[in-house]
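This follows on from our talk about sequence and fold. Please put the record directly below this note.
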Amino acid sequence: MDINSVIDHTILKPELPLGAYTQGVRDCIAYKFPIICVSSFHTPLVSSLVHSYVHTDMNLNIAIASTIGFPLGTSSFESKVIEMQQAFNDGATEFDFCLNVGLVKSGEWKRIKDELLILRNTIPDFLNKFHPILKCILEVGLLTDDEIKHCCDLAIENHIDFIKTSTGFLTKLDPKQTARYVRLMSDQVRGSKVKVKASGGIKTLADCEMMIDAGASRIGASNSVAIMHEVNGR
C-alpha cells in the first residue's frame, strides 16, 4: 500500500496564515495526497486553489474535506446542516463532523441518531454519480469503550462512511493509545460499509503503519510531508 493514498492532508491549526493553504495544495500535488482537509472557513480558498491547478492538469484529482462543528461538536444540528451545505457549495465533497460528546456521555442516543440521520441526508447523492463522504469524529479519549461501540453501531445504522478517532485538539493521545481505539472501532464495524479514520498526533511513518495494522483505512495527518520524506528515505 502506498501511504500517501490513505492520508488526508490536514491543515487545521487556526494560527496558520493563508499562504499555508496554497502550500498545502502544492504538497497534495507533489506527494499525491488524494484529500486535503481544512476548516469550512478555508474551503472556498482551497477549492479555488485546487481548481486553478486542475485547469492546467486535467488528470489532477484532489478532494476537499471540510470540518463541520469543529472541534467541539456542540453547535446545533441546524447550524451543522447550514455549515455542511455551505461547505458543499464552496467545493467540499467530504465532511468531517464532530459529534456532540456531551450527548454521548448523557446517553442521549435518540438525539445522536437524529443528528447522524439529518447530516447523512443533508447532501444527497446525485444520480448515483456522487456520494458525499461523511466522517463522524468521536473524540475517543473522552469516551468509554462501550460508548465508542454504541457510536459505531449508530454510524452503521445511519450509513456514515467513516468513524474517526479524534480532532487532536481536545485530547492528546500517544499513537499506541490511538491504535488501540482504532482496533476497537475496526472490530465493531467489521462486516459493515463503515470504515475507520485515525487522526490526532500521527506524526511518523511508524505511526501510520501502526494505524493501518490496527484497521484504519484513512489517516488524518498534518505532518504528511515529513511522513513522505521518511517513505522516500527508505
